[in-house]
Specification:
heterodimer; A: about 450 residues; mainly beta; Methylamine Dehydrogenase, Chain H; 4-stranded antiparallel beta sheet; 6 helices; globular; B: about 200 residues; 9 helices; membrane (chain B)
Amino acid sequence: MALIQPDPTFYPSAREAMLAPREELAYVALLDAAGGGRPDAIATVDLSDGSIAATLDMPVPGDELHHFGWNVCSAALCPYAPHPHVERRYLVVPGLRSSRIHILDVKDDPKRPRIVKTIKPETLFARTGYSRPHTVHCGTDAIYVSALGDVNGDAPGGVFTLDHDTFEPKGRWEVDRGPQELHYDFWWHLGHDTMITSEWATPNQIEPGPSLEMLAGRRYGHRLHVWDLVKRRHLQEIDLGDEHQMALELRPSHDPTKTHGFVNTVINVEDLSAAVFTWYLEDDVWKARKTITIPAEPAPAEALPEPLRQFGAVPPLATDISLSLDDRFLLISCWGTGELRAYDVSDPFAPRQTGSVRLGGIARRAAHPAAPGRSLNGGPQMVETSRDGRRVYFTNSLYRSWDDVFYPDGVSSWMVRVDVGEDGSLSLDESFFVDFAADGRRAHQIRLQGGDSSSDSYCFP
Amino acid sequence: MDLTSLFILAGLGAFHGLNPAMGWLFAVALGLQERSRAAVLRALPPIVLGHAGSVLATLALVSAARLAAPPRIVTYGVAALVAGFGVWRLLRRHRHRRTGMRVNAWQLAGWSFLMSTAHGAGLMVVPVTLHEGDGAAALASQSLVATATHALAMLATTAVVALVVYDRLGVAVLRRAWFNLDLAWAVALIGAGAFVALS
């Protein structure tokens, strides 16, 4: 049903979205890693006390839920394609392994979403030529979804769109993909009609697990691609340097008048460090510069899993980042060392570290204050910031076959909350520890009810 | 044209001028993007010209039909078209695209033309002019006067709203003040079609 006034969760600008009411519920993707024929699920977490309010099992096992997003968001207020009277009520939930896409309705009982539609993998393959759907962003004219590969699990990966109303796949997005082959994440600068995409590797390269051979051969992705969002054409390639393996999460500035953003690279094959690059527009050319380096931490060989023993060090493995809506603080997950870092990026070329918390980690296994005696595995991974920028949530699982290499004892999953100070300092919320050990599945992306720092894009500064 | 018709045409122009989807919001967005009040003002003429082009094209087509076909057929044809468009507006959701934030004046005018046409802006003006004018010259001058009246009212309204929002209110006002008039507009089109058929 169309609304009389705009959906109250739509804000013309990120600045105004920061004034949104505090989030009450979180939706969390749960991945079954036991392989016993149990389906994945979307859990609803009550943020007032950290209790798991409900879990919704998917209809069949094997989806590998990972990232997901909303049907519509603040981009509906964009002036050139306005449709403000639609409702943010559906979660678009792709199965990264199965290529199935579930549509969940959260309106009637926000704590207990229900599945209202499932797009079959065959439909996706036939209409788009892509498989392994990943990132979901609500656009101005459609729902945009990235896909890691073609129907055979090879390159190229790309972007396809879903109809806003029917959720039917409309087709491949690119008109001219230029030299782009690998894919992972995408997002855009709406004020500049520009899309940015990143690179991980093909599904066939990723699904068996991480490969030292691929790393040593520098064969994982290390480029950004810049696209004309309106003409759907490849404009430019930015090579971050092939030592920086796996260019993953893209966080463009939320202010549409700005033309910079941040991307994390997971591991530098020369010294095991992780990095964040700032991309920017200069003289009509998009460029990128390394602005944050996080070094590896020495550790005794006996504390390390097999592939890391020869190095005697833990790589930080920066696997996810989150940018607060005021474009001021960047959160970086170091899944290997078990650290969440905050940086003040007011000057995007000179980030300044403002905070850190430690939890889990390959060698440290740091405990949470809620259970000081219990060593935790996994580390800060999928990270999400509340709209007001005061709270950060994260979970600890990366990707099934990769979890098992870095944490061979099997990731026992949890979700925690961190308070962010005015100065960007971080402190663990001692009362908030969501333990998924009893459920047994692994938590991945978090979406906050009403929107968060990676759910919406804005056409107004 | 009588004064009542001119008032109705101007009123419809003001109504379109108030609608954020018809252009003032785009003008404000372009101004904010460039941090320039002049950019708001620069965007208004192409937007209003695109809108006027859509209205004039509709009136020209109806005028041509009136010169070529008996009045009764034209009347029922227009009635069916206007009401049918209202029904279509009622049943279909609309997604407009294929422009972005970086537009030149031509693209802005083209966008406005398409938005106005999809909205049925010209169709609502047709019933006001249908029963007046006779002969090509009279129809042409009537169409021009109707379009100019409509467009000037739209320009005045859209300019005032765009500047008040840009200078004072800010776009946050959209969250409360952007009322969904799609249903009312569709019903009005159906009503206008019925009015043409019955009058």
